[in-house]
């Protein structure tokens, strides 16, 4: 390499290091995320429109299918996580990506609400199961030192790719052609097939053999402190729902702000996530660091709700300014909350059961998935500022219980050295029996 080439490489390295992890398995996982985000952005933006415009389902039927998919995905998270531990997370993650591709191809042939309901449920199970298995894969490939930081890189890239694909899907919706709608399904299916192939190029993560009954670790579904942390952490995901669903509806129906601002608010959110998620995740790779970020999460979400509620009755320019400020607060709550979730989800789980513990942690999303949309739309719409204050109160209560819940879970972990002496293994932490 010439001196000029070396100087050019040196100049590019700092910028590249901010956008991507170091070359190796981590960068390949980010590439998988980028491909998946493009496919998901195409389908999620245009899929619902296709079922309404082409298949002639009602919006209500589409919503029922999405809700059913969310519930079934939550129920199957733990079994899928167990299988990821038992048979290896790499193969399980790739298999679920192929299952998702198969369901997307099957969705092309949906002609009735019944078949749509079945396909939507299976697609949701494959999607959520893939998240659980991939979490175990990230932990196995990157180890304790790199898994939280890589999760931040993956989320940053996913948001950027999803936004780009959503814009492309918007053009398809504008044309409103059945053939173009179907291209969204085929494009996402092709992306999932490619992602499955890329996953199999990652290093092999050994499966966890079935332990003899006397040495078997406690089941994640009986680890009450961990379950409690999961449920509290899941409440933070009501914040992104409030931003994506509640705030636009509030803007249109209760404020004088320009309606077009709704799209710009989501752009602000996307850019903040893309450029700040990795930076914000620093320090979340320990239980104390993640717990501190979680407390900041609930505090800033409570403030965001109060600020959003104050936008009613203001002149258009003032309401718009207040809503931008609320969006910034909501977004900080989102990126802090996700970083805290990764730290707590990984660090409080034993390394030999990351799959099943990840499945249990995902059950904490139940309230946000099932009740979140209703809460963030109904309360502000019916009660105005008082409705936003009710949401702020929910986050304030979450703030009060978050710290004690994490401390309880941390006290019930067995340190790695003690567990190693007990079982001849080297997991990070294991629940006390």
From TrEMBL:
<feature type="transmembrane region" description="Helical">
    <location>
        <begin position="28"/>
        <end position="52"/>
    </location>
</feature>
<dbReference type="InterPro" id="IPR011701">
    <property type="entry name" value="MFS"/>
</dbReference>
<feature type="transmembrane region" description="Helical">
    <location>
        <begin position="320"/>
        <end position="337"/>
    </location>
</feature>
<dbReference type="GO" id="GO:0022857">
    <property type="term" value="F:transmembrane transporter activity"/>
</dbReference>
<keyword id="KW-0472">Membrane</keyword>
<keyword id="KW-1133">Transmembrane helix</keyword>
<feature type="transmembrane region" description="Helical">
    <location>
        <begin position="385"/>
        <end position="406"/>
    </location>
</feature>
<keyword id="KW-1003">Cell membrane</keyword>
<dbReference type="InterPro" id="IPR050171">
    <property type="entry name" value="MFS_Transporters"/>
</dbReference>
<feature type="transmembrane region" description="Helical">
    <location>
        <begin position="261"/>
        <end position="281"/>
    </location>
</feature>
<dbReference type="Pfam" id="PF07690">
    <property type="entry name" value="MFS_1"/>
</dbReference>
<feature type="transmembrane region" description="Helical">
    <location>
        <begin position="157"/>
        <end position="175"/>
    </location>
</feature>
<feature type="transmembrane region" description="Helical">
    <location>
        <begin position="293"/>
        <end position="314"/>
    </location>
</feature>
<protein>
    <submittedName>
        <fullName>MFS transporter</fullName>
    </submittedName>
</protein>
<keyword id="KW-0812">Transmembrane</keyword>
<keyword id="KW-0813">Transport</keyword>
<feature type="transmembrane region" description="Helical">
    <location>
        <begin position="181"/>
        <end position="202"/>
    </location>
</feature>
<dbReference type="GO" id="GO:0005886">
    <property type="term" value="C:plasma membrane"/>
</dbReference>
<feature type="transmembrane region" description="Helical">
    <location>
        <begin position="64"/>
        <end position="84"/>
    </location>
</feature>
<feature type="transmembrane region" description="Helical">
    <location>
        <begin position="357"/>
        <end position="379"/>
    </location>
</feature>
<dbReference type="InterPro" id="IPR036259">
    <property type="entry name" value="MFS_trans_sf"/>
</dbReference>
<feature type="transmembrane region" description="Helical">
    <location>
        <begin position="223"/>
        <end position="249"/>
    </location>
</feature>
């Amino acid at each position: 390499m010439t001196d000029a080439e070396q100087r050019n490489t040196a100049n590019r390295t700092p910028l590249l290091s901010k956008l991507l992890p170091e070359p190796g398995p981590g960068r390949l996982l980010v590439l998988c995320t980028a491909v998946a985000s493009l496919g998901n952005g195409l389908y999620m933006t245009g899929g619902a429109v296709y079922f309404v415009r082409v298949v002639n389902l009602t919006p209500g039927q589409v919503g029922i299918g999405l809700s059913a998919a969310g519930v079934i995905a939550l129920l199957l998270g733990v079994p899928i996580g167990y299988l990821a531990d038992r048979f290896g997370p790499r193969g399980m993650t790739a298999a679920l990506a192929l299952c998702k591709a198969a369901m997307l191809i099957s969705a092309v042939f949906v002609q009735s609400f019944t078949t749509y309901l079945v396909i939507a449920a299976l697609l949701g199970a494959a999607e959520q199961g893939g998240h659980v298995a991939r979490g175990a894969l990230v932990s196995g490939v990157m180890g304790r030192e790199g898994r939280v930081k890589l999760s931040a890189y993956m989320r940053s890239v996913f948001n950027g790719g999803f936004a780009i694909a959503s814009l492309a899907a918007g053009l398809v919706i504008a044309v409103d052609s059945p053939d173009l709608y179907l291209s969204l399904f085929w494009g996402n299916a092709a992306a999932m097939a490619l992602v499955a192939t890329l996953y199999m190029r990652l290093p092999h993560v050994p499966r966890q053999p079935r332990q003899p009954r006397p040495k078997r670790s406690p089941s994640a579904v009986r680890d009450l402190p961990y379950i409690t942390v999961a449920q509290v952490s899941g409440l933070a995901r009501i914040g992104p729902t409030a931003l994506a669903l509640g705030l636009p509806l509030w803007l249109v129906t209760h404020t004088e702000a320009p309606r077009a601002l709704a799209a710009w608010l989501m752009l602000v959110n996307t850019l903040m996530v893309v450029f700040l998620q990795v930076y914000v995740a620093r320090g979340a790779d320990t239980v104390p660091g993640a717990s501190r970020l979680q407390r900041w999460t609930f505090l800033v979400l409570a403030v965001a709700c109060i600020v959003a509620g104050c936008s009613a009755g203001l002149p258009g320019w003032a309401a718009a300014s207040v809503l931008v400020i609320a969006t910034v607060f909501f977004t900080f709550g989102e990126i802090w909350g996700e970083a805290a979730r990764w730290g707590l989800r990984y660090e409080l789980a034993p390394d030999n059961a990351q799959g099943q513990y990840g499945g249990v942690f995902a059950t904490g999303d139940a309230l946000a998935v099932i009740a979140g949309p209703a809460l963030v739309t109904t309360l502000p719409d019916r009660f105005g500022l008082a409705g936003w204050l009710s949401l702020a109160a929910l986050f304030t209560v979450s703030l009060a219980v978050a710290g004690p819940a994490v401390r309880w879970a941390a006290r019930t972990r067995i340190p790695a050295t003690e567990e190693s002496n007990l079982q001849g293994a080297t997991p990070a932490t294991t629940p006390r029996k």
